[in-house]
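Need tokens for this chain, all 136 residues.
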Amino acid sequence: MKFVGLIIYMGIVKVPRLKLYWNVGQLYSGLLPRRIMPRCHFIALLAMLHVADWDDVSQLSRGKLRFVWWLMEHVNQVSANLFQRNRDLSVDERMVKFKGRSGIWQYMKDKITKWGYKLRVLADPGTGSRYLLAVH
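Here are the structure tokens for all 136 residues:
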């Protein structure tokens, strides 16, 4: 509740930068956030905050990747515009390092990066540039 209270307080009392709420100078000495919560705790909570529209059915249908789906679509669109196809294409398997909690990370003993998300990539073997990205 302290975090939500600070968000409301910051909406009412405006300062130019976020870190000025915790400033010890005379100009900002009367502000409340410094007495309620340390700045590092507030920044950590703010970094973990995610707001999503759960009424949107398209977000729910994407499963466990619904929070990064927009990024994957954007990367695929940009790489499709920039990619110059050659005659030879190959399907490559890549591993993105991740050891957090997730139901889709995998272990592959033969890879340099052993734990993470397995990606299928359509790539050009000559240049090494990739065209299409899909999570396996």
